[in-house]
Amino acid sequence: MIRYKVQGGQPHHRFINFVALFPSMGEYTTIQLPVWRPGRYELGNFAKNVRGWKAYDADTGELLLWKKSTPHTWVVESDGVDYIKVHYEYFAAEMNAGSSYWDGAQLYINPVNAFCFLLDDPEMNMDVQIHVPHDFDYAGGIPSERKQTENGESIWRLVAANIDHLADSPFVFSRDLSSHDYDAHGQKMHVWMNGEVNFGDFDWRKDFQAFSELQMSMFGDFPRSHYHFIFQFAPYFIRHGVEHENSTIIAMGPSQAFNERKNYDSFLGISSHELFHAWNVKCIRPKDMTPYDFTKPNYSDTGFITEGVTTYYGDMMLIRSGVWSMAKAKIQMEEFIETHARNRGRLHQSVTDSSVDTWVDGYTAGIPGRKVSIYNEGAMLAWMMDVDLLVGSQGKVSLDDVMREMYKRFGKRGVGYTSDDYWNICKELGLNRWESYRYELCEGTGDYLAQLKYTLKHLGWKLEWASSGNVAEDYYGFLVDDMGRVINVVFEGPADDVGIGQEMRITCINGQDVHRNAKEIMQKQTGDLTITVEDKWREYNVEVLRREKPFKRKAVLVDIENSDLRQIWSGSRLGA
Ligand SMILES: [Zn+2]
Asked: If you measure from the C-alpha of residue 38 to the centroid of ligand 1, how many angstroms do you get, rounded to a whole number?
């Protein structure tokens, strides 16, 4: 067993102290820190937050010799040593759903960031004691209780089966935690909220119950005996969620503005998405990540399933359970289409390849037009395939059946799946043109919009394109932020034609200097522009001609008829 003692240091220093006791593995003992975290398929480089790592003989207190063999691996000379005592500090100053944070009011740890394990025995139990002030409460997926108290502090104990279990069980100790619960199909669901939040008149419990019950009905059961939503409600804008074995951490803000429909919908959207992950990813897991290998990247081409299918169902479960209206459904689908169409990466990289490439640039804008989003393109694919299955079976078979089959064959049996397995199930269940979905749209850079016409026809919608209302984009073919930074250029539009590119900054527009007001200035323009562009090494003027007619880049779904298929698609589909 590996034992840990964890305690926050001076709050404003943001360091958490770790003292660990590792059994010696013989002549050398290799101690490893994870290099990535499940849910974020890129290197996390957590070692950059570790300070003062030292190893001692636990009996004699003598300092041992060690050498780093990778940034995340310490090889300790442990001949004749029974237990190695390791001490280090972890800098916990980042607040998102996958980070760790300590500020005196809360001790929040994603263990995958900060806990080392034995490379030769990742299955070893981990016994963690956490020292926090008396008035802190606990939220996390591993049951815990206050073991003893002294000097105004409490000691909480978490026992994890192995590093995998601990890494997948983030926790929050805080004095601002409130505890809530609701029932879904007899399953008690826990909701922890850290921080004050304003939901206005919205009844979140009722809405959570609705989407949770529908998800459970769709799969037939819930794979865990208990489940925890853990919300970090921040006063500033943040929207980030990470799925775990029997919990999810969701960082959301601004917390006083969840009485506004848009923010509240975003809160529901992310919550439904994360719960769907309890099946899809945490249970129905790609073979490439079964088990997780924390010592190196775990490449997988299944992002269109893990994140794409989850993105689609996160929204669909809100629509199908009646929490979201058909008007909202239409907006969500328009967003998928628009995000797809605006990204010229669709011409250059398949969603399959983008899935592997999350490890290099999956969570940044990346270079212009290089890649596509596994979330958006995966959701588009799932949508089109869902409707195609419904059409081909007169409403009897849908993507629900594919996911149920995935759950039955792989999730419930604890066996990892490959993308071949997924496509085979689609084929078995009668997906028309499955080869085209797979080879042209998923593994190739085929035309989604051509296929989408078929989807929309059956749902009684027609796709039209409208101007966005953003003057800079509509008439000049670029988008800027307030500071004048060019964030997007319409290919072969007026700005592109005169050499304006992403990465440049606009400092002056028709004689008016830009001071955090570029968007506002652009919105008032009615004629041709003379603009000054700053391009790292030089600054120069360019003339941008105004288009007579605006670009039309906004996707609009026009109602043709409320088709029978649309009603099935947007209904609960239970008992069908
Ligand atoms: Zn996700």
From this structure: 10
**15 close to 53: Cβ distance less than 8 angstroms:** no
Q: How far is the CA of 102 from the centre of ligand 1 (A)?
A: 25
Helix (H, G, I), strand (E, B) or coil at 338: helix
- Residue 511 CA to ligand 1 centre (angstroms): 46
Cβ atoms 535, 361 nearer than 8 A = no
Ordered by where they begin, the domains of the chain are 2-174 (2.60.40.3650), 177-264 (3.30.2010), 287-463 (1.10.390.10), 471-544 (2.30.42.10)
pTM, to two decimals: 0.96
pLDDT in tens, 35-63: 999 999 999 999 999 999 999 999 999 99
Residue 306 Cα to ligand 1 middle (Å): 7
**314 CA → ligand 1 middle, Å:** 9
- Look up residue 347 and give its two tokens: 């011409």
Summarize the confidence of residues 209-225 as an average pLDDT: 97
Residue found under tokens 């050499």: 499
Q: What spacing in Å lies between the alpha carbon of 384 and ligand 1's midpoint?
A: 19
User: What's the first-to-final CA gap in the chain, in angstroms?
Assistant: 51
Give the number of other CB atoms < 10 A from CB of residue 512: 13
Taking the CA atoms of 243, 247, 252 and 258 in sequence, report the sign of the dihedral they define. positive
Helix (H, G, I), strand (E, B) or coil at 149: strand
Residue among 209, 165, 205, 201 at smallest CA distance from 184:
209
- Which of 6, 119, 110 has its CA nearest to residue 68? 119
276 Cα to the center of ligand 1, angstroms:
9
Question: Do 557 and 334 touch, CB atoms closer than 8 A?
Answer: yes
The Cβ-side half-sphere exposure at 82, using a 13 Å CA radius, reads 4
Residue at 81: amino acid letter: V
Residues 6+ apart with CB under 8 A from 330: 461, 557
CA 359 to chain centre: 14
Pairing state of beta strands 227-233 and 247-253?
parallel
| Residue range 447-490, pLDDT digits in tens | 999 999 999 999 999 999 999 999 999 999 999 999 999 999 99
Ligand 1: centre distance to CA 11 (Å) = 32
127 class by beta-carbon count within 10 Å (0-12 exposed, 13-18 middle, 19+ buried): middle
* C-alpha span between 50 and 90 (Å, rounded): 5
Q: What's the gap in Å between 303 CA and the centre of ligand 1?
A: 10
Q: Measure 224 CA to ligand 1 centroid, in angstroms.
A: 18
Q: Cα(495) to centroid of ligand 1, in Å?
A: 36
The angle at the Cα of 470, spanning 469 to 472, to the nearest 5 degrees, equals 140
Q: What is the tens place of the pLDDT at every residue in 479-518?
A: 999 999 999 999 999 999 999 998 899 999 999 999 999 9
Name the amino acid, one letter, at 66: W
Residues 500 and 486: beta-carbon distance below 8 Å: yes
CA 449 / ligand 1 centre spacing (Å): 24
Q: Which residues have CB under 8 Å from 458's CB, separation 6+?
A: 387, 390, 391, 563, 565, 566
Contact 553, 453 (CB under 8 A): no
